[in-house]
Amino acid sequence: MAISPTGVRPEPASFRDPANRVFHVGDEVLRGLDPQAAQHWRALTGSTFFPALVAARKVCATEDAPPTLVPDATGTPWAAVLRHERIPFVSHPYEWSFSMLRDAALLHLEILNAALGEGFTTKDGSAYNLQWRGAEPVFIDIGSFEPVRDGEPWAGYRQFCQTVLYPLMLTAHLGVDFQPWLRARVDGIGADELRPLFTGARRLRPGVLTHLHLHGAMQHRNAAASTTEVRDQLRAAGFSRELLHATVRGIEKLVRKLEHRPAGTHWSDYQRTCGYSARDRVAKEQFVAASVAAAGTRPRLVLDLGANDGRYSRLAAGHADYVVAVEQDPAVVDELYRKLRSEGQRRILPLVLDLADPSPGGGWRGVERAGFAERASADVVLALAVVHHLAIGRNVPLPEVIDWLAGLTAPGGAVVVEFVHPEDPMATRLLANKPAGLFPDYRRDTFETLLAARGRITDRLELPSGTRTLYRTVMGG
Fold first, then answer.
1. pLDDT by residue (tens digit) across 105-137?
2. Are the beta carbons of 86 and 117 closer than 8 angstroms?
3. Is the pTM of this model over 0.85?
4. DSSP readout, 235-251?
5. Measured distance CA(111)–CA(47) in Å, rounded
């Protein structure tokens, strides 16, 4: 991300709408508005629905800031500058579980319905317009609000289909995880890509005929027409604000019907099958809690890599401001999310992420959507029962694993890592599926040497079982 001489950093994901642009100045998140966008903002603050949504924490807190804080591309001040609350950790829709994307969709539609009721709409329908405070979704694209124009459809409908509705339908109707599809293309899943999967009787599944086949046919029919021509056709056909409102309510009703409850997996019952004794579990929990608390100052961010059911994320949350709980299995993340949501948890964010293939940078120039490593600068990284899965299960050399953990850690931050000895039953099981002699360097002494080369080992604990050791290492120390 480029930094100007004044310390203003443009947000790489905010460039598609020239009417407003997001910037970072230190820890502040600012948005510049052009004259028309500033006029829309003033009307928005005078409405009833918008302050109510902010008060209900459904829209990010926003206030006016001095216009001179952020220059535009030509050096001329914006007509207005807004200051937004800072989201603790930015995530992408392809890192969310099914229930997370569905809840984000429902919030987006709730906000749109409220806006339409007072003569406003949103010109975007992207899933990227939402973020999370723990298990609580929040709408962040304040620049998307604008007055609704009679006879015009929802401008964000196509975006909503491609980044929200089609992914939900893919998983709900076919049982196919949407995350790899969304990760592959920043604009989402096109109707042409999905339509071949919904032929025959599948065409009759909820939402498919209307929002996939008919919508796709309309796109092809109007491909040569301008946006103005399409709007004129809709007005001539009698498309009204009331019909728009009814259409949005219909989409909301459809989204509420979409369900996905996958069968249990090995990882969904990990606490029972992982092989820890009661003594091991107690010792491990005490070590983790003490290691997070030993940071000196309260950690702002903890990453729990391989979080599973969130046991250690909850422990860390007792000593830190915010925890990102990363797990590869979408079903496990979905179950964790629903539990956190029912608890009203706002300080633990569960994400779907393959640690051996984490989210890369994407979109325009590969930086529009920052990769996981670029977003992660944690005060504490928990890597519990992860190393052996990467080193043996995924053939990642131990030096690479240690370098990766160090790269996720803020300067002076700590890594709390568990090394599973080669003779441990879990490591033995993994090694049994590999050619003999493939991992001669997978040894405790080698691991300790590599760890000590990247930081200062401040604490270590061998669990009572004798086949697993925990380390707390201050990286760079």
1. 999 999 999 999 999 999 999 999 999 999 999
2. no
3. yes
4. HHTT--HHHHHHHHHHH
5. 13
